[in-house]
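Quick one, T. Sequence first:
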Amino acid sequence: MKKPVVHVIPNAHLDPVWLWDYREGLNEGVATCRTILDLLDANPDLTFIRGEAAIYEHIRRTDPATFARILQHIRTGRWDAVGGTWIQPDTNLLAGETLCRHYEVGLSWFRENLGVPVKCGWQADSFGHTAGLPEVLAAGGVENFAFTRPPAEVLPLRHPAFWWRGRGGARILAYRPPIGWYGCERDEIKRRFDQLVPWVKKNPLRHIAMFVGLGNHGGGPSQRLIDDVRAWAQAHPDFEVRFSGLHAFFAALRRELAASGAPRLQEITGELNFCLRGCYASVARFKHPYRHAEQELLRAERTTTLLQHAGLVPAPDLTAAWEAVLFNSFHDILPGSSIERAFDEQIDAVGAVRQTAREAAFRSLNVLTGRVKVNLPKVAADHPKAVPFLLWNPHLRPVQTFVELEACVDHRPVPAYQNRPDALPLEVRLNGRIVPHQILATEHTSFVDLAWRKRVLVPVTLPAAGWQIASLGWVENSPAPAFAARATGRGNTIANDFYQVSTRVGAAGITVTHRGKKLFGPRGLHLTTVADHWGSWGSMTEEPAGIRLTQEIARWKITRVAVTESGPLRAALVVRLTSAKAHVDLTFRLTAGTEEVAIDARVFTDLEAARIKLVLPGADRVECEVPAERAERSAPGEIPLLRWLRARRGREGFAVVSDVLTAGDLEAGDLRLTLARATRYARAENLDQSQEWWRPTVDRGELRLRLALLPRDADVAAAAELMGQPPLAQMVWANPTGDLPATGSLARLQPAAVQLLSLQPGPTKQTLIVRVQNPTATTQRPVLTLAGVRHPLGPVKPGVIATFSVGPGRQVRPLALGA
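Structure tokens:
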């Protein structure tokens, strides 16, 4: 019988941000790698693995000599470049395109700067893994995947190695070490090996991986660890012990599995979850702007790419913005487990991404405006002209929605309407045609007696990846056309053709009626506060009391109700719910002819060791968007959420889309969405509020978010995309000599079932990089139309993520991520 082979894989897990800031983390990367290089020079049999392109890039820029030494050891095969991502991200809370971009950017960086194709994914410490990861790995040519979380007590496996399958057919050889984690303590080597001995006797796999190294703040193998490995190997000649890398280990494991009589491995489809569930909701003050940054950057990139391809503008360089988005998806930043000072800085970083995205879109659309014919209605002498707006749809499908326009209708207040500003008559035109509108309250409450600045709501249908010109002006006696449908508001109730929302002061819940039936039963939509004494990560061991948070510690009552908009295009109902040390303002909006309840929430909290949850009764299972896939969930306990979910109970149900919600749970037939979690920064232990009471509590103050209720079978993906990336309305200027029409379209993607993940500039001005995902159950054949030219993208199987280079004429070429 052949000896068992233990592949000892030295590594140095480094959190670039956690209990320290990014400067300390990145420079520790330099220090650790210099130490490892010295150890490699002193120990000819030693190997080492290192992932994360961001760490390598920092070393390349900061310490070229050390980077050159790394390259030398890569060429000899002793330094194994692994992972393939920009940083080790959380893979439960980031957008599907952000996950794809990790491998696109990371794999390309490894190939171009290290000269290696990475075939082994490595997530040492990420807190669970999305069901979409196999397809993303396969799209980048990554064949293997090693991880250590969730642990065995949470995620039992038949063997440490298994086949992880994606819905589109991806088949990844995955491995979780049977003994230990990604690192070890200084004196742990002998104990770790001794634990391995009885395990080997009952396991059919001959090749076994064991990860060693001082981790979290870098470190890696020490000389003592190296010597202890050699000593144990010498004392146990019945084992073959070798220093190894991930690529060497997986190559040996694949040879073993291909041999005659090899064990048949378990096949797993779906997510590898859950653990450290508190992270799904910790530090919303970072999570919320991060979600906005992702969506705003995607919208800006798509916008500028289309305008570049049309020959209108050069595409701005958004590389640094994308690197910031990727860096901030790190598994101690996005999950909310770092120190407060670090979050202050990382919030600044994602704020810079948002500003970069806005500026790029703003300047590019201004160039488009300079080419579009913008004519304004004629006016009498000394009467102000209407204010023009460019309306831009960034989506590659037509969009029917409502937009808000606000402008000063004259350069000074109109004296004839002083003390009666609501009587000032307005006219809204779309491409020169008068359209219905509703006057709204302005965003300011200054000089309320003056008729000057006006805000309106307008129904629009925008062409795919296209624009229209709207105008808002002061016009006497202008006929205002009626809209086909209506929304109304009166007393404590608002309604449209599909929904009615009503409540009263003193009640505990809000009644939402859909097509004549109460959507949430007699209790209605309501809030609850539950005790949550767990630290940043929640329960560290998945104990039941940490999974199911059921101790209600405060009840809520409605204390104020007001109808603030009463139609005809939109009605709004503002409801204040109040509880101990917290209140929440929910603004419900119904628009004419739209089967949707929009909800804006402002959460004000001074709580500690608690969660505020929005309770939607009538759900015992959900289908959720997860990064690059969707997942069915029915077990109690906190779960991570992305932009949409469908909730069901029997034949009934509803759907929810949101811009920033990240967590919720199913409990006793209710869907409970976490609006706020009051814990401490970077705390592992349970909270004792009597101890160190002066420590800051996370998310005290105000949080803002948006969500919408839709019918269960609504197109939730399209609704979520529209919420996260709404059309842009930009005030512009008259331009009667423009050479482009007042409305136009640059591109369209069909069929609607195919989801566009991203549209990027290609290596030349004439090429685009298009990434799509097929979420349906049948193979789709997407077609991208550019400037009237159809580009068939080829068949895309269910669940598959596909990337294409689209060039001049009808050129279409499939691409691997990072190619």
